[in-house]
Specification:
Helix content: 10-25%
CATH topology of one domain: Thiol Ester Dehydrase, Chain A
CATH architecture of one domain: Roll
Largest sheet: 5 strands, antiparallel
Strand content: 25-35%
CATH class of one domain: Alpha Beta
Shape: elongated
């Protein structure tokens, strides 16, 4: 069964669909949960207690724990991916990251994107053919419309002429079980199915002089 890659993505996010000055308001929002913030903070060994110590954070100006910036950035950029990342071949860079306001547990984030640059023939396509480089500026706002995150991202995106012809892996015809085994296993399999010779037909076992192991003397009972 084969599926065309183009059938899995939208029709309006190839390289040719991005023009400098375009601004996207992405469809979804995401409420920040305390669990995801504290879990990721601890998994990456972030030692800033303002992210996981509510007692200490209650004495800070905001009065509550602050969401780890890595969580904020990943949520905002993740919300932008449906429109800017479905046909990305490779992420090239993320820079100019700024966290403008604290994000607290329970805040809801929304994402926006501006196209600030495009290169139809990038100087560093990294071995890819039929791709272009798009330079995005992402920003995220909370439920009050306040900007909490800004960052710029560059990505190599498929052109409509992009093709995977010649790269597909074809399924090989099924091979018989014995033929698929390595040579050593195949020999072992043949030995396993070969009928055993009658006991009388087995040659007497010979042992080289001096190599036979002495038999253990039987133990006497009663002592």
């Amino acid at each position: 069964m084969s599926i065309e890659a183009s059938a899995l993505t939208a029709r309006s996010n190839y390289f040719e669909d991005f023009a400098i000055g375009d601004v996207y308001e992405h469809a979804r929002g995401k409420t920040v949960e305390g669990l995801e913030n504290v879990l990721i903070t601890n998994l990456v060994l972030n030692t800033a207690q303002a992210h996981f110590n509510e007692d200490m954070a209650s004495r800070l100006p905001q009065g509550h724990r602050i969401t780890f910036g890595g969580v904020t950035a990943s949520i905002v950029i993740g919300l932008a991916m449906q429109d800017t990342g479905e046909n990305v071949i490779e992420e090239v860079g993320l820079d100019k990251v700024r966290f403008r306001l604290p994000v607290l547990h329970g805040d809801t984030l929304y994402a926006f994107t501006e196209v600030v640059g495009t290169e139809a023939a990038p100087t560093d396509p990294r071995g890819h053919c039929d791709v272009g480089l798009v330079h995005f500026r992402h920003w995220g706002v909370n439920q009050r419309g306040e900007t909490v995150f800004e960052g710029e991202r560059r990505a190599l995106i498929k052109k409509r002429s992009f093709s995977v012809d010649g790269l597909a892996v074809r399924e090989e015809a099924a091979m018989p079980a014995t033929a698929a085994l390595p040579r050593r296993d195949a020999r072992a399999r043949r030995r396993a199915v070969k009928p055993a010779a009658p006991a009388a037909a087995k040659p007497a076992r010979t042992v080289e002089r001096g190599k036979a192991k002495p038999r253990a003397r039987p133990r006497k009972r009663g002592r």
